[in-house]
Structure formats: structure tokens, C-alpha cells
Automatic annotation (TrEMBL):
Domain of life: Bacteria
Coiled-coil regions, chain positions: none
PANTHER family: ACETYLTRANSFERASE, ACYL_TRANSF_3 DOMAIN-CONTAINING PROTEIN
One Gene Ontology term from the biological process aspect of the record: polysaccharide biosynthetic process
Protein name: Acyltransferase
Organism of provenance: Hymenobacter cellulosilyticus
Transmembrane segments: 38-56, 76-96, 117-139, 159-184, 196-218, 224-244, 256-277, 283-302, 309-332, 352-374
Matches recorded under Pfam families: Acyl_transf_3
Amino acid sequence: MPNLDHCWDINNCIFNARAPFVMTTATATIKPPIKLQYINALRGLAILGVILVHNLELFDADKPMLSRMMTTFISQGARGVQLFFVASAFTLWLSMSRRKEEKHPTRNFFLRRFFRIAPLYYLGVAFYSLFFTTVHVPMVTVSSLLANLTFLHGLRPEWIHSIVPGGWSITVEMWFYCLAPLLFSKLKTVDHCVRFIVFSILASALLSIVLVTVRPSWLDFVFYYFPSQLPIFGFGILLYFLLVRNDLSKTIKPSTWLLAAGVSLLLLLTGLPYHGVEPAGKHYLFGAAFMVLAYGLSQYNFRLLVNPIINYIGEVSFSLYLVHFAVMYAVRVMGYAEIVTPNHLVAALANFGIRYVLVLIISLCLATLLYRLVEVPFQNGGKRLIEYLER
């Protein structure tokens, strides 16, 4: 996993943010049924983890007082992106399965995804472009702007973290959207999903090693680019089939078990970093664990994890992600980074916790406004357009 210790300066961290971008795929105008509330809860837990790790990275005062174990634990909040990708793939498959009888399901799929993501993201591009220009940070170029507007910023290392903090996950998500209709038509069983995960992990490992061998400076890039994250979506697709068809032992062929075991052993035996690349990336383990967590919550809504507060945080998590960077910068500039002087462990933990709650509350208020003023209206507009085209 890439080193995150470079985040010693607020501006440096914002425009080099390596945080997961938060995705929600359920339509904004219809509440998910009670039995699917756990999906919003998963999104809520994911964004809480994202803000947690940024609360450490973007403020350097607390870190020296925290133990290595504490900082390591907090840094795993960044794995919220894998949780979002699992939830995203699952809900996409659920949505496509329910809408496959439409006259033009593929066209409608892309329209829904565009109106779900693009309006708010474009607002983020405009805001952060203005912000970086104002503070004289050379992050906005014509090429990076065009790349972000077309969601192609994942093609080059110098673009993938440009303009919108954490925007790398947007391009990853959009690339998955492009593949989703094809994968939906090809992946029909649990066996297909397992094979897809295995082959995509193997392909990602080989491609990353080749790229880093040729361009060592791309080490950071090959963690965040689409091939590295594609297998995570596979776990979300597998979750869909496990919940819809729970005949696991009958649907996975013996040859698939053998293939999965063989590739797993190969990656583990060659698991030492090669030019810094970890063939068996830890984020795949998180992806698998999140799939198991989601499956468990689908069977029982554990109230500590699935409750109205966390569900609502998950519902507005897209907006919450986009605004929390700006809120953190404002907190820093206004002098609230050290509410409690972190001169010993207890004080550092208190300062960390109070600042986390402060950032979360302010960000949640702003996210609610964005959700109601931008997300919902544009999603409704996309829905009306689809209804018109389907006549």
C-alpha cells in the first residue's frame, strides 16, 4: 500500500488526496426498502472512515503523540473506498436486474449514472479549480481540466489526483460503469464471478509489475488506477449472486476452486513487493472482508451499524465526501486544528476526537444542502428524461 506519510501540509494533502471517493448508487427519490438499509449503512461507515483518516492526515499536530498502532489503525479508514466499490457493484447489479425489461436498458443505465455523478462532480471541479487558482497552487491545467470533465483523469499519473481531492475514485467508478453492462451480460453465476475476480487480480498484478518496471515513478499510480481496483467490484457482484442464489457449493465448479487456490498461492508465494508492487494487495483482502460484512448485515441488521443516523450519513455520503476537504481546510485556517493542545497522548486523542466531530457536523450540514439542491433535482431530471425517451 502506498505511503501516506507525505501529508504534512494541508494544501499538499488536499491536492494530492489519496482518499476514497464516495459513491452512492441508489436513486435519491426513493428510499431503499428496510431490508436494504444496510447498504446505506455500509456507505455511512465508509465515509466515516474516510473522514477519520483525513482528520489524521490533514492535521499534523496529533500524529507525533499517537502510537504507531493507533496511526496504522486510523489510516485503514482509507479502505472505505473498497467498501464503497463493493456496495456500488452490488446495487448496480440489483438495479440492472430489475430494469432489464426496459426498452433501452443500456442507454438508461448510462443516463442514470451520468445524472447521479456528473452534476455534483462538475460543481466540485468548478469549486476546487477556483480554490487552487486562488491559493496559487498549480494544479489546474487545460489538460487536467478536460480530463476531469470527461472522467478520463485516471489515464495519466499527473491527472489522477488533480483538481478534485480524491477524484481518482470517480474515474475508477466511471470506468466500471462503462464495463458494467457487458459484465452484466456475461457474469451469470457465482462460478463466473469467482473466475472474474481471480483473473482480474492476476491481470492487475502482472500489469502493475510491468508498468513499474518500465516506469518506477508510477508505483503510486498503479495502486489507484482502474485495473488495481477492478477486482473489488467483483466482490460486490459476487455478493449479489450469493444473496440471490445461495447454492454456493453447487455453482462453483471444482476447476474454479482449483484455479482460485492456485492463483492465491502463486500471489502469496511471490507476495514480497516487486519494485514496491504488492501482487497480493491488501485492499483485496479488505474487499473480501467487506463482502462478508455486507452479507452478514443482509441477514441481520445489527443496530450498532445499521441505524437511522448512519443510514442518513450513507445517503448523503457523495456530497459529504466532496465538502469535507473544504471544511477541513477552513477549520485549519480558522485556527481550530488544535482545540485541545496535543502535548500528550490523552490530549492528542481528545483533540483528534473533538475535531473529527466538528468536521463531521459541519460537513454533514453542507452535504445535506448539496444533496437536496443538487443531487436530488438532477437525479429527478434524469429520471424524467428516461421516462420521456421510453415513451
